[in-house]
Amino acid sequence: MRALDALAAGTAGLRARRVRATLSALGIAIAIAALVAVLGVAESSKRQLLDELGRQGNLLTVATGKTFDGSPTPLPLTAQPMIARIPPVQSTTAVGNIDGATVRRTDLIPPVNTNGINVMAAQPSLPQTLSVRILRGTFLGPVAEQYPQTVLGWSAARSLGIDRLTAQTQVFIAGRYFTVVGILAQVEVAPEIDTAALISYGVADRLFGLGGVPTRIYLRVDPDQVAAVTAVLGSTASPENPRDVQVDRPSDVLLARIQAKETFVGLFLGLGAIALLVAGVGIANIMVISVLERRAEIGLRRALGARRRDVAAQFLLESALLAVIGGVAGIGLGCLATLVAARLGGNPVAIPPQAPAAGLVAALLVGALAGLYPAARAARLPPADALRTL
């Protein structure tokens, strides 16, 4: 039988039973869409994390030991200027924890309802060193050194229900009102900033007696000299107690997140493979029913000279076409789902080229395997027995 004749015979059953064929292909489409979407969404998220990793890979933090509640203990006053003298260091900024200070929307809220917001003194160089965007308003400037003004981290602003700023937007910090002059974007590599209310060092020294002491220093270094700078930061920040200095590379958090996402991708791919297997069983079941319903057609074709392999090829091709149609539809749905998820998450759209190809091959393989038994059963059907159903 010629290829065109085989294709016409294979599609005849699909055209005659369009609703059944559509429902059967839908199972394959959903499974393939899930597989493509999992790979696409994971790749888009990974691409965004890798971009962030490239921007934050040269960021280091310096802190000493921690107190009983987990807060870092102060660093020497000389730590930041000494670190800034290291040649590969490009910029530095420091923050200082203000212990016991609560942040509330108004003084009518009980002090115990702090929503986990910390109060930190911050230097004007913080946005530049951390490469953080200011979503609303401005950062702490010269006026903030003299008057009670604050900038809220992303999570802190959400906890307080503040999403826009006016001249009357205030929060109640440690017994007095502070005007909110800015809201920061989320800082992936410095979550402590996200949950903080930032005030100037001048106000922190005057109202809370901070004394200009830093508890954490952030620094940007030459990307090619990260390891070398890390090796000398402890002794530079605290020459008397270098072992007590904790040096971290915040971008390691991004690496951990990438690895965690890859683990979950494997899990979801396994679930998608199970869904594809179930869809294949559904196609096999439909094809067996089709063989039973078309016994007369099979007997007539055999009586007119069709060979067993021609009959088997017809049903095998029909099963494979059914799966391929579902696979193509599933690839389209998976790409669309990836696009929507990436846009909603603010990530770049990235679909691995192998994902659509692998989905189509998987659909074809499942369709071929699902059609093996129905095709063999149709080929073994004796013409005389089949013609009795006419």
Summarize the structure.
The chain contains 13 helices and eleven strands. The chain has helices at 3-16, 18-56, 79-84, 126-130, 154-160, 191-194, 201-208, 226-237, 251-293, 295-303, 308-345, 354-380, 383-387, and strands spanning 59-63, 89-97, 103-104, 118-122, 134-137, 149-152, 170-173, 176-184, 196-200, 216-221, 246-248.
- Rounded to the nearest angstrom, the distance between the terminal CA atoms is 25 Å
Number of strands: 11
The biggest sheet amounts to: 11 strands, mixed
Total domain units: 2
Determine the strand fraction and express it as a percent band: 5-15%
| Low-confidence parts | none
Into which percent range does the helicity of residues fall? 55-70%
Radius of gyration: 33 Å
Class from secondary-structure proportions: alpha+beta
Order of helices and strands: HHEHEEEHEEHEEHEHEHEHHHHH
Mean pLDDT: 80
User: Any idea what the shape is?
Assistant: elongated
Count of runs of 4 or more consecutive helical residues? 13
